[in-house]
Amino acid sequence: MMRKGLTRRKRPVSVEVPLNITEMFEEFMLVKKGEGLAKRTIKEHYNNFGYFKTYIEKEISADEMTIELFVRWITYMIEEMNYTPAFNIRVRTMRAFLRYCYEDKAWIHEPIHKSFKPIRAPIDVVEAFTVEEYRRLVAAIDDETYVGFRTKVMTFVLLDTMVRVCELVDIKRQNVDFKTMSIRLEAADT
Hints:
The protein is mainly α. It has seven helices and two strands; from the N terminus they run αααααααββ.
């Protein structure tokens, strides 16, 4: 029973304001950070999105995110910027973002991520050191100085473990176990 003179208030109707591409990307990155991706991977996502934003030169809505736009972007990188297939990391990170926009949020209504793929790249053949080259490399380091000794240790660790240089630089004291003579890399850092 309502008292006289009082009226019921209507609930405010929520109006969904469409997000621009940067706002969509920020929501995507919240999810990626929550998945525990490595800091370096998170940084790459931001860098690659920045390259795309530089190309489009403005904020766009979901309706403006079309396959044609992304194909033109790839063509621009190949033909105008003369990028090699190494730019495929940019394509992969943008495809992950577009997949999220389509499959997880339904912000876009066509599966753009399925319509373009990383470009074909020739397979690089990397020749391993011969035993003689390895010996010459190690012998060339003057381990009588601190810098030389450090360089020799780093060279042995790189060659013995096949760890990436950036991972080697990020190794902390707690990652090294001198009792078992092992190095343990954290998944978040690799």
